[in-house]
Specification:
By secondary structure, the chain is of the alpha+beta class. 14% of the residues lie in helices and 30% in strands.
Length: 253
């Protein structure tokens, strides 16, 4: 079993040997009068993923290379990428893909990611099945911690340790209050502002050198997570989502 790690659409060169997933608990012990202790149950904290990345100086046989982009990116490229993500202070996409023994991506359950059934309780921090089994994990994250380590044990290679934390979007709403002069009734109206993207989606796309499905989805559909939509529309041409070739013409809708 192997993994592919994409950090904001950048494929990491070497798969970590271990990925640690942590869901911190936030339950509190409360001591009552008389010395009895009870547990105040709280929702879990935000999920964290911790892993070490090897940044090779030379192109080893096990290095992950994007098809048709055979050159090895420099160590500075990845260091700059992570430092830039931290400096922007904005969430980005983290994708962890488990592959089958033949190298094909493991999609897990039909239908992709789905929420755990919480009955009539709606959580502010929803848990997804794919968060748990690691088959195909896509979510918005931030970098909680980033450590760059040099060691003589690694020769000219570098090791970086990264902790990603799940990001949940939030925002404010504008509430307008209107009073009925006859009845004195006050009515509250919530106004939600949402940006719209009027970009016309082309019907087809011709693969160029250096392209991969996530990049195409981000450029043409506005969301790298929609790579699976392209894959589903073009299964007759794409045998392995990680292998596409210049000159292929994919349907986008």
């Amino acid at each position: 079993m192997a993994y592919l790690i994409y950090v904001e659409d950048v494929l990491m060169p070497v798969t970590p040997s271990k990925i640690t997933r942590k869901v911190p608990g936030k339950n509190e012990e409360i001591e009552l009068l008389g010395g009895k202790t009870v547990l105040n149950l709280q929702e879990p904290g935000l999920t964290e993923w911790s892993m070490d990345f090897l940044l090779p100086k030379v192109k080893y046989p096990f290095v992950n290379i994007i098809p048709e982009q055979q050159e090895l990116r420099s160590q500075d490229f990845y260091l700059t990428h992570f430092n830039t993500l931290m400096a922007k202070a904005k969430p980005f996409n983290l994708m962890i893909i488990r592959t089958k023994p033949n190298g094909v991506w493991d999609f897990g359950e039909d239908g992709g990611t789905f929420k755990i059934d919480t009955s009539d309780y709606v959580s502010a921090n929803p848990i997804y099945v794919n968060d748990l089994d690691g088959i195909l994990n896509k979510c918005q994250c931030t970098i909680e911690d980033f450590t760059d380590k040099d060691s003589t044990d690694e020769g000219f290679d570098k090791i970086i340790s990264v902790t990603f934390k799940k990001y949940l979007s939030y925002g404010t709403k504008t509430v307008s209050l209107a009073t009925d002069n006859k009845t004195g009734t006050i009515t509250a109206t919530t106004k939600t502002t949402r940006e719209t993207d009027n970009k016309e989606i082309p019907s087809t796309y011709t693969v160029k050198s250096g392209d991969y499905l996530i990049l195409i989805a981000k450029k043409e559909l506005g969301d790298g997570n929609k790579w699976k939509d392209i894959y589903e529309l073009n299964k007759d041409q794409i045998k392995d989502p990680n292998l596409i070739y210049p000159g292929q013409v994919f349907k986008l809708k």
